[in-house]
Amino acid sequence: MTDSELKQFLERAQNGDSAAFSRLYDEFAEKLYRFIFFRVGHKEVAEDLLSDTFVKAWQKLKQVNSPAAITGWFYQIARNNIIDYYRIKKDFVPLEEVAEFLEDAVNPIDTINLNMDQAKILELLVKLPGEQRLVLQYKFFEDLTNEEIAYILNKTEGAIRVIQHRALIKLKDLVKRKSK
Fold it and tell me: Which residues are in the RNA polymerase sigma-70 region domain (predicted)?
């Protein structure tokens, strides 16, 4: 979907057009499902959380100020739903582990598809500080823009660029050290 189409569908959906919201659903549902599934590990739970994400999105769609923010906004709702899910299950899973899991989760399908050099880089990724690792995961595994990442992490785009730059420098240094 082009930016102009996204803008058009967003505006129509904000004015109550359910068919336009359906197009937004079609655009984002698969990515958001993967994002949720690899953090909860259960198909039915992921489907429920995805549904809840879109229900909440429909109810609060007027909060989105620009089409550029919508992807990050959807991911933020999904992330909050995952956190809420684990809060409800807190008898079974400590919340500290959930926060770490949300940051550390990597798509295993993507991992399988990586060649050997990329797999080595993925191994080193876990050695980065949490925020740096998270920014790189959003950027390169989830294909989010800096603007979308900034929205999710409640930071400025400039801060995201700095974090990403530092993370890439540190990752490059780790690669050099590992190859010695």
Answer: 24-87, 124-172
pLDDT one-digit tens code per residue, 48-72:
999 999 999 999 998 888 887 888 8
CATH topology for 106-180?
Arc Repressor Mutant, subunit A (1.10.10)
- To the question of domain 1-104 being in CATH 3.90.1150.10, the answer is no
- Percent of the chain at pLDDT > 70 equals 81
Q: Where are the domains of the chain?
A: 1-104, 106-180
Tens of pLDDT, residues 121-162: 767 788 888 888 888 888 877 778 888 888 888 899 999 999
Q: Which residue has the higher pLDDT, 153 or 118?
A: 153
